[in-house]
Write a structure and sequence with these properties.
With 105 residues, the protein is mainly alpha-helical. The chain is built from four helices and no strands.
Length: 105
Amino acid sequence: MNREELFKHHKNVCVVALGIVEMKNHDYAGKRGDSPFANFTRSEDMGICTTEQGFLVRLCDKLSRLSTFASAGELKVENESYHDAIVDIINYCVLFDGYVSSKKD
């Protein structure tokens, strides 16, 4: 892969990531979308950990899957590929950034 192919790949992955975060956010935050971080703030509401720590826990879950893939060369759950984990990580990072930015505003 050359640089231009990498940039095209990056754009394609980000388009996929945006589509998935739109669908998942509907499912997690509700149709009105007035609480886009609801599934992350819920951990804090339940007294488990801070919202920020909740984001990090979910990121660690996905990194664990990628670590398994890197060492084993495969994942057993057929409907959740290494690529799905990467897209989820992208989305969790964007959501985390959005959440922290919204707190500053």
